[in-house]
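User: Hey, quick favor. My workstation is busy. Could you predict this chain's structure for me?
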Amino acid sequence: MFKKILIANRGEIACRVIKSAQKMGIKTVAVYSDADRNALHVKMADEAVHIGPAPANQSYIVIDNIMRAIKETGAEAVHPGYGFLSENKLFAEALAEAGVAFIGPPAGAIESMGDKITSKKLAQEAGVSTVPGYMGLIEDADEAVKISNEVGYPVMIKASAGGGGKGMRIAWNDDEAREGFQSSKNEAANSFGDDRIFIEKFVTQPRHIEIQVLADGHGNAIYLNERECSIQRRNQKVIEEAPSPFLDEATRKAMGEQSVALAAAVDYTSAGTVEFIVDGERNFYFLEMNTRLQVEHPVTELITGVDLVEQMIRVAYGEKLSIKQSDVKRNGWAIESRLYAEDPYRNFLPSIGRLTRYRPPEEVVADTHVVRNDTGVFEGGEISMYYDPMIAKLCTWAPDRGAAIEAMRDALDGFEVEGIGHNLPFLSAVMDHPKFVSGDITTAFIEEEYPDGFQGVALSDADLRRIAAATCAMYRVAEIRRTRVSGRMDNHERKVGTDWVVTLQGERYATTIKADPEGADVTFEDGHTLRVESDWTPGDSLARLRVGDGDLVMKVDKITSGFRVRSRGADLEVRVRTPRQVELADLMPEKIAPDTSKLLLCPMPGLIVSVNVAEGDTIHEGQALCTVEAMKMENILRAEKNGVVAKINADAGDSLAVDDVIMEFE
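Assistant: No problem, here it is.
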């Protein structure tokens, strides 16, 4: 077996590969850029080599830099993770020439399957059903518009070397095709160094289901069931599960066998994934093959018991697969939630900064459930603008889908992240959404269920009462502590009353509390009483309570006269006041938000790529005003209404913070 391998990647996937290598007794080498000098993967590896400045195109995707690190450390093999150089045939060829094993497929398979145009042609030749489209290269925006009309709108404009949602746009008309072509081309060039574009028909209301394959260099190939990846936004997966709640055995078998046949057709070895779109009648169409380890591979590992990274290493060493198709089982259900540094309340725009608090739930391996957290960050670390915004992949397993969802709900409730915007509230909301719970989902789920963006969850009256009872009991504990502060003036003893009014989500609950050594009974005006028991103490940021006949987990922060509470996707300001304090609070004037209707504010930290208008220009609703790039994604900012540009405060190349004023209107 290899004695030392280098991981040509960063973040959570580098940490994930290191874990399997350590389990196998293999020493590891990390590489890092200026921005990642103190990163977790650097700390975990046995050795680490600096490979350049922060931008990926000056460090992680520079083949010469990686080859230098290999030579310096004597690594015998390289695992590329995903993204960066993982599907770059030139990198695989450079390794082969240097006599270093590539823990991935042969360069020929990377070239044929990694290129979306070539892979579709090969899939057609192999008898795999493919989506209609134009597989030739497209030279300019005019040609893109012409082809889009021939294929028929809507169309998907995609980078041939793309992945992870980058270099991809949906166009519904000529204007969107023209804009989408240029943005896809720019993103593809920046992310992959390859700006080739193709166009295919966009199949509406599809499910995204993929098959995991594994092949060795001795002619053996198997499929390890499927993953459902339909919960996406901006063509990037957010929640995945295995198996799919939609497939039947016949469809699963057909998709698996076609995937293995396609892998065999290109002499594929290592782990790979064949992606399909599946319509409501379970007709499936080949989408692409990812010649690498997928982000969502943990859910497959959890239901099959197969360590895919270990298998990749063994195959690269020349070993035969020890698993036959008949050995592949499906045990229980697994779900993965991708925790991103993206603010769901600002249309999932990227967020950067320091993780002032990062406390994932405890990892658990039990017969009843599993909690697994693959991450590449730590408390106090920085989320950089230069790389993908993923913070962690939280996975749960249970014997059935309902139990796996419930385990995920609890794990998300107990996941503490502060200092940046993140999508934990949204993930929690999806876990409780009736459509997701029923399994009735498509790739349009987010677009259809949150058409105006995510505004948080409105809890039911029953849930609000449980939180009201919990915070009432917690506030009483905090008030008692405050009465015991030393150094008080004589004859100024404070007494903690029993009557409190709890205000949250626009609702007001008058309560009476009766406490005892084990907990408290909180009684509402209508006579309903909830028993609250907990070992929470003031200052704890996570509260685990027993309220009524169920458990309640809340993230809590102290605010004036109450708490900021986050639970099950809701973000609430909870005020706990005496009846007299409520009377006085009602007399306070409301604060009026400033008028920003005549300003274009930067919605995220990012770089101005282009400004499309000039001072004095008349603009129209929907017109592109400028483009902002953040975390390798381009975002076009459009006019919300007609007007005239009065002043432009930023130029192409400027770096802006959130809410910086880009331009002003008359």
